Amino acid sequence: MNGLSTSITGRAMNKGLLSVEAINIRDFSHDKHQSVDDYPYGGGAGMVMQAAPVVESYEYICQKTKKKPRCIYLSPQGKTFHQRMAEEFSKEEDLVFLCGHYEGVDERALEMIVTDEVSIGDYVLTGGELPAMVMIDAISRLLPGVLNNEESAVTESFGLDGLLEYPQYSRPEDFRGRKVPEVLMSGHHANIAKWRKEQAIFRTKEKRPDLYEKYLLNNRTKT
Ligand code: SAM
Question: What is the CATH number of domain 2-140?
Answer without folding.
Answer: 3.40.1280.10
